[in-house]
């Protein structure tokens, strides 16, 4: 608390400045407007070149005082001095201060005869101190606080705590419970300020309920429910925006649940969603691969094609989440083993199936970037099962899928191939070469991977052989 003492202010060294005041409906004063207060502060700090500077001590220091209130009915002079020397003289009423403030009650009740003057020095926030004392005269504080900003009310709350002004503390807490908090920074300031209030104050809990829950809900269940709602949505814009938002939020905090076991539970929930989507996709592929499906009317084919695109989009989103969480290796195993789905792939019209190849492309990109690290057998099986369907859909992917980045995908495919043993690299790349020479731009361009394989196959053995011969000759000569 600021320093408090009984004293007189020597009027010989104090400038008295009258400023406009606001009068409450009850007829009492309240603090001057912040604008007028700041003008007084500014006036105090203006340089005075006409006078010789005086020594900087308490007896000679120039002070600016603000006199307001009703001197005729007041029975106490309250002097506030800020840390920069700014002083305020207040004409107040002893009974009002004692009734509203435990701090003033303690200071004033102990004095006999009653004090006529009380000085409080080294105030950190004189302006808000004035405002808070003025609120002691208001019956309806809500009407005063509702016009204030959150930062200003937090300052009032702090001074009210220092003064033991319980009625104002409760009003500030009621205000903070109802008003919106704008931005994370303001929210943190509100929470930290409210947490400093005594825990026995009944107004604290309602404010904190905005960020904490008394009922303990499993976070995994909540996240799983959110993801299920997104996966089942058919509204394109809502799906797109919420997918992006959830992915970003999970990416910002990759371990939202604290410990590894909880993260494993969440990953398990995501994998359950993957299995459901894969099951639905297989059923849709079987339906769309039936003889005569392509000859059906658009009204019959349209819903199936739309649902295939939806499930493919769901799987791609789940893969993005798992890749960000470094937990997509098992999904790579699941996708590599979708032999039935891959066998049905050529039987569907390209327009209906090509989005499924985006999933394969995302796996290759993830492996090429080191985000997904499946075993050698899984990488090889992934290429054997899904590279040909990807090549078959490559034209459509380039021209009908806006999110498809050809260079990134081709780099991912090439790097995936180059992680295999040299014999497997040769087998896959020679098969690719025959297709590339026929299809050109309608086939992935894996020339960079081909160059690496070429050097590994033809150049490196020759260099190593030459190195061995040189080493042998030097040993013979020695």
How do you describe this structure in short?
This protein has 478 residues and is of the alpha/beta class.
Q: What would your notes on this structure say?
A:
With 478 residues, this protein is an alpha/beta fold. It has three domains: 1-138, no CATH class; 140-216, no CATH class; 271-464, no CATH class. Helix content is 61%, strand content 8%. The chain has helices spanning 34-45, 94-100, 102-109, 126-135, 141-145, 150-163, 166-178, 183-196, 204-208, 219-232, 236-252, 260-288, 298-324, 329-336, 339-344, 350-353, 356-369, 376-392, 394-400, 406-418, 422-439, 447-477; strands spanning 3-5, 14-18, 22-23, 29-30, 63-68, 76-82, 87-92, 117-123. The strands form two sheets. It has a six-stranded mixed β-sheet with strand order 1-8-6-7-5-2. A two-stranded antiparallel sheet has the order 3-4. α13 packs parallel to α17 and α21 packs antiparallel against α22. It is elongated and about 110 Å long. Residues 225-460 form the At3g05675-like ankyrin-like domain. This is At3g05675-like ankyrin-like domain-containing protein.
